[in-house]
Design a protein that fits this description.
The protein is an alpha/beta fold. It has one domain: NAD(P)-binding Rossmann-like Domain (Rossmann fold, 3-Layer(aba) Sandwich), CATH 3.40.50. About 50% of the residues lie in helices and about 15% in strands. The protein is built from eight helices and seven strands. It has helices spanning about 15-25, 40-50, 60-75, 100-125, 150-170, 200-210, 220-230, 235-245; strands spanning about 5-10, 30-35, 55, 80-85, 130-140, 175-180, 215-220. A seven-stranded parallel β-sheet has the order 3-2-1-4-5-6-7, sandwiched between helices. Helix 1 packs across helix 6 (about 200-210), helix 4 (about 100-125) packs parallel to helix 5 (about 150-170) and helix 7 (about 220-230) crosses helix 8 (about 235-245). The mean pLDDT is about 90.
Protein backbone atom coordinates (compact mmCIF):
# COMPACT_ATOMS: atom_id res chain seq x y z
CA UNK A 1 0.00 0.00 0.00
CA UNK A 2 1.19 3.50 -0.77
CA UNK A 3 1.57 5.18 2.62
CA UNK A 4 2.72 8.66 1.59
CA UNK A 5 0.91 11.47 -0.17
CA UNK A 6 -2.60 10.23 0.61
CA UNK A 7 -5.65 12.02 1.96
CA UNK A 8 -6.86 9.93 4.89
CA UNK A 9 -9.99 9.90 7.05
CA UNK A 10 -9.63 8.23 10.47
CA UNK A 11 -12.80 7.70 12.50
CA UNK A 12 -12.25 7.76 16.24
CA UNK A 13 -9.07 9.66 15.50
CA UNK A 14 -9.11 11.87 18.59
CA UNK A 15 -7.57 9.29 20.95
CA UNK A 16 -5.93 5.87 21.24
CA UNK A 17 -4.88 3.97 18.14
CA UNK A 18 -6.73 6.40 15.87
CA UNK A 19 -4.72 9.36 17.12
CA UNK A 20 -1.48 7.38 17.01
CA UNK A 21 -2.18 6.50 13.37
CA UNK A 22 -3.03 10.12 12.62
CA UNK A 23 0.31 11.30 14.02
CA UNK A 24 2.26 8.61 12.16
CA UNK A 25 0.54 9.35 8.85
CA UNK A 26 1.11 13.09 9.25
CA UNK A 27 4.84 12.40 9.53
CA UNK A 28 4.61 10.55 6.21
CA UNK A 29 3.30 13.65 4.41
CA UNK A 30 -0.34 12.61 4.28
CA UNK A 31 -3.32 14.93 4.66
CA UNK A 32 -5.18 13.53 7.68
CA UNK A 33 -8.77 14.15 8.77
CA UNK A 34 -9.94 12.80 12.12
CA UNK A 35 -13.60 12.30 13.02
CA UNK A 36 -14.99 12.05 16.54
CA UNK A 37 -18.06 12.76 18.64
CA UNK A 38 -16.52 15.01 21.29
CA UNK A 39 -15.97 18.68 20.39
CA UNK A 40 -13.61 19.29 23.30
CA UNK A 41 -11.37 16.31 22.51
CA UNK A 42 -11.26 17.25 18.83
CA UNK A 43 -10.29 20.82 19.71
CA UNK A 44 -7.55 19.65 22.07
CA UNK A 45 -6.07 17.38 19.42
CA UNK A 46 -6.34 20.09 16.77
CA UNK A 47 -4.54 22.57 19.01
CA UNK A 48 -1.75 20.08 19.65
CA UNK A 49 -1.45 18.99 16.01
CA UNK A 50 -2.47 21.98 13.86
CA UNK A 51 -1.90 20.12 10.59
CA UNK A 52 -4.72 17.73 11.42
CA UNK A 53 -8.21 18.43 10.13
CA UNK A 54 -10.98 17.59 12.61
CA UNK A 55 -14.68 17.05 12.05
CA UNK A 56 -17.43 16.12 14.49
CA UNK A 57 -19.63 13.14 13.64
CA UNK A 58 -21.78 10.68 15.57
CA UNK A 59 -21.31 7.54 13.51
CA UNK A 60 -24.38 5.92 15.06
CA UNK A 61 -26.57 8.45 13.21
CA UNK A 62 -26.99 7.76 9.51
CA UNK A 63 -27.80 11.40 8.78
CA UNK A 64 -24.45 12.40 10.26
CA UNK A 65 -22.64 9.69 8.30
CA UNK A 66 -24.17 11.04 5.09
CA UNK A 67 -23.25 14.62 6.02
CA UNK A 68 -19.69 13.57 6.84
CA UNK A 69 -19.22 11.88 3.47
CA UNK A 70 -20.77 14.78 1.53
CA UNK A 71 -18.67 17.35 3.37
CA UNK A 72 -15.40 15.49 2.93
CA UNK A 73 -15.93 14.73 -0.75
CA UNK A 74 -16.41 18.46 -1.33
CA UNK A 75 -13.59 19.70 0.89
CA UNK A 76 -11.09 16.92 0.18
CA UNK A 77 -11.71 15.66 -3.38
CA UNK A 78 -8.46 13.67 -3.25
CA UNK A 79 -9.61 11.64 -0.21
CA UNK A 80 -8.51 8.10 -0.99
CA UNK A 81 -8.15 6.19 2.28
CA UNK A 82 -10.79 5.59 4.96
CA UNK A 83 -9.66 4.03 8.24
CA UNK A 84 -12.62 2.72 10.22
CA UNK A 85 -11.14 2.86 13.69
CA UNK A 86 -13.99 4.15 15.91
CA UNK A 87 -15.22 1.51 18.34
CA UNK A 88 -17.13 0.95 21.56
CA UNK A 89 -17.25 -2.02 23.92
CA UNK A 90 -19.42 -2.89 26.90
CA UNK A 91 -19.28 -5.58 29.53
CA UNK A 92 -22.66 -7.22 28.94
CA UNK A 93 -24.70 -9.97 30.56
CA UNK A 94 -27.97 -11.30 29.17
CA UNK A 95 -29.60 -10.49 32.51
CA UNK A 96 -28.63 -6.80 32.35
CA UNK A 97 -31.45 -4.34 31.75
CA UNK A 98 -29.41 -2.49 29.10
CA UNK A 99 -28.02 -5.65 27.43
CA UNK A 100 -29.84 -5.14 24.11
CA UNK A 101 -29.27 -1.37 23.93
CA UNK A 102 -25.52 -1.84 24.48
CA UNK A 103 -25.26 -4.44 21.74
CA UNK A 104 -27.19 -2.22 19.31
CA UNK A 105 -24.69 0.58 19.97
CA UNK A 106 -21.75 -1.79 19.48
CA UNK A 107 -23.15 -3.09 16.20
CA UNK A 108 -23.92 0.43 14.96
CA UNK A 109 -20.46 1.78 15.80
CA UNK A 110 -18.21 -1.22 15.16
CA UNK A 111 -19.93 -2.83 12.18
CA UNK A 112 -22.74 -0.86 10.54
CA UNK A 113 -20.89 2.49 10.50
CA UNK A 114 -17.82 1.07 8.67
CA UNK A 115 -20.10 -0.77 6.25
CA UNK A 116 -22.16 2.36 5.60
CA UNK A 117 -19.10 4.54 5.08
CA UNK A 118 -17.74 1.99 2.63
CA UNK A 119 -20.98 2.20 0.68
CA UNK A 120 -21.24 5.99 0.77
CA UNK A 121 -17.59 6.52 -0.20
CA UNK A 122 -17.47 3.65 -2.70
CA UNK A 123 -17.94 5.55 -5.97
CA UNK A 124 -15.65 8.38 -4.86
CA UNK A 125 -12.90 5.96 -3.82
CA UNK A 126 -13.16 3.87 -6.99
CA UNK A 127 -12.53 7.02 -9.03
CA UNK A 128 -9.20 7.68 -7.30
CA UNK A 129 -5.92 6.46 -8.84
CA UNK A 130 -5.47 4.36 -5.70
CA UNK A 131 -7.74 3.88 -2.68
CA UNK A 132 -8.26 1.72 0.37
CA UNK A 133 -10.64 1.03 3.21
CA UNK A 134 -8.86 -0.09 6.39
CA UNK A 135 -11.07 -1.77 8.99
CA UNK A 136 -9.67 -1.94 12.51
CA UNK A 137 -10.83 -5.26 13.93
CA UNK A 138 -10.02 -7.45 16.90
CA UNK A 139 -9.03 -10.99 17.78
CA UNK A 140 -12.47 -11.15 19.43
CA UNK A 141 -13.78 -11.79 15.91
CA UNK A 142 -12.26 -15.28 16.20
CA UNK A 143 -12.21 -15.70 19.98
CA UNK A 144 -15.54 -14.33 21.26
CA UNK A 145 -15.29 -12.98 24.78
CA UNK A 146 -17.90 -14.11 27.30
CA UNK A 147 -17.86 -10.72 29.01
CA UNK A 148 -18.21 -8.78 25.74
CA UNK A 149 -20.67 -10.68 23.53
CA UNK A 150 -21.82 -7.64 21.56
CA UNK A 151 -18.31 -6.35 20.91
CA UNK A 152 -17.18 -9.82 19.81
CA UNK A 153 -20.17 -10.23 17.49
CA UNK A 154 -19.63 -6.80 15.92
CA UNK A 155 -15.98 -7.55 15.19
CA UNK A 156 -16.87 -10.97 13.76
CA UNK A 157 -19.34 -9.23 11.44
CA UNK A 158 -16.69 -6.67 10.46
CA UNK A 159 -14.25 -9.47 9.64
CA UNK A 160 -16.83 -11.25 7.49
CA UNK A 161 -17.85 -8.16 5.53
CA UNK A 162 -14.20 -7.17 5.03
CA UNK A 163 -13.62 -10.49 3.28
CA UNK A 164 -16.76 -10.11 1.17
CA UNK A 165 -15.96 -6.56 0.07
CA UNK A 166 -12.36 -7.48 -0.70
CA UNK A 167 -13.63 -10.14 -3.10
CA UNK A 168 -16.26 -7.84 -4.62
CA UNK A 169 -13.62 -5.19 -5.31
CA UNK A 170 -10.88 -7.56 -6.46
CA UNK A 171 -10.87 -6.18 -10.02
CA UNK A 172 -10.73 -2.52 -8.97
CA UNK A 173 -7.97 -0.22 -7.70
CA UNK A 174 -9.67 -0.15 -4.28
CA UNK A 175 -8.24 -2.33 -1.51
CA UNK A 176 -10.02 -3.60 1.61
CA UNK A 177 -7.59 -4.12 4.49
CA UNK A 178 -8.32 -5.59 7.92
CA UNK A 179 -6.22 -5.06 11.04
CA UNK A 180 -6.65 -7.26 14.12
CA UNK A 181 -5.62 -5.59 17.36
CA UNK A 182 -4.42 -7.16 20.62
CA UNK A 183 -5.18 -5.43 23.94
CA UNK A 184 -3.99 -1.82 23.54
CA UNK A 185 -3.43 0.64 26.37
CA UNK A 186 -6.56 2.73 25.80
CA UNK A 187 -9.64 3.68 27.79
CA UNK A 188 -11.62 0.84 26.19
CA UNK A 189 -9.71 -1.84 28.11
CA UNK A 190 -8.69 0.15 31.17
CA UNK A 191 -10.21 -2.52 33.46
CA UNK A 192 -8.07 -5.29 31.99
CA UNK A 193 -5.07 -5.97 34.24
CA UNK A 194 -2.84 -7.48 31.59
CA UNK A 195 0.01 -6.59 29.28
CA UNK A 196 -1.07 -4.05 26.66
CA UNK A 197 0.73 -2.50 23.73
CA UNK A 198 1.03 1.26 23.48
CA UNK A 199 -1.04 2.96 20.75
CA UNK A 200 2.13 4.38 19.19
CA UNK A 201 3.73 0.93 18.96
CA UNK A 202 0.57 -0.51 17.41
CA UNK A 203 0.40 2.34 14.89
CA UNK A 204 4.04 1.82 13.91
CA UNK A 205 3.43 -1.89 13.29
CA UNK A 206 0.29 -1.17 11.26
CA UNK A 207 2.20 1.32 9.09
CA UNK A 208 5.00 -1.20 8.56
CA UNK A 209 2.58 -3.95 7.51
CA UNK A 210 0.64 -1.59 5.22
CA UNK A 211 3.88 -0.55 3.55
CA UNK A 212 4.65 -4.21 2.86
CA UNK A 213 1.31 -4.66 1.12
CA UNK A 214 -0.53 -6.81 3.65
CA UNK A 215 -4.34 -6.87 3.49
CA UNK A 216 -4.86 -8.99 6.62
CA UNK A 217 -2.79 -7.64 9.50
CA UNK A 218 -2.78 -9.31 12.93
CA UNK A 219 -0.77 -7.21 15.36
CA UNK A 220 1.65 -8.46 18.03
CA UNK A 221 0.68 -11.62 19.88
CA UNK A 222 -2.46 -12.03 17.76
CA UNK A 223 -0.29 -13.66 15.07
CA UNK A 224 0.55 -16.53 17.45
CA UNK A 225 -2.99 -16.80 18.81
CA UNK A 226 -4.46 -17.12 15.33
CA UNK A 227 -1.92 -19.79 14.40
CA UNK A 228 -2.92 -21.84 17.46
CA UNK A 229 -6.59 -21.15 16.75
CA UNK A 230 -6.30 -22.77 13.30
CA UNK A 231 -5.50 -26.12 14.89
CA UNK A 232 -7.19 -25.92 18.30
CA UNK A 233 -10.14 -23.49 18.06
CA UNK A 234 -12.03 -24.89 21.04
CA UNK A 235 -9.03 -24.93 23.35
CA UNK A 236 -7.99 -21.46 22.25
CA UNK A 237 -11.46 -20.08 22.98
CA UNK A 238 -11.40 -21.47 26.51
CA UNK A 239 -7.89 -20.15 27.14
CA UNK A 240 -8.73 -16.69 25.77
CA UNK A 241 -11.75 -16.33 28.05
CA UNK A 242 -9.77 -17.63 31.02
CA UNK A 243 -7.09 -15.00 30.35
CA UNK A 244 -9.72 -12.27 30.20
CA UNK A 245 -11.39 -13.46 33.41
CA UNK A 246 -8.02 -13.45 35.18
CA UNK A 247 -7.30 -9.97 33.80
CA UNK A 248 -10.59 -8.76 35.27
CA UNK A 249 -10.03 -10.66 38.52
CA UNK A 250 -13.32 -12.54 37.99
Amino acid sequence: MKIEGNTVLITGGDSGVGLALAKALLQLNNTVIIAGRNDEKLLQVKNKFPRLHAVKCDLCQDSERKNLVSELKNQFPELNIVINNAGVAFFSDLRDENFYENIVKEMETNFLAPLRLAQLFSEHLRNQPYSAIVNIGSAAAFLPLTVMPGYSASKAALHSVSQSLRYQLRNTKMQVIEVLLPPVDTQMVVDFKMKKLSPDKVAAEIIKELKEGRVFIPIGQIKILLWIYRFFPGVMGVLANRMVSNALNK
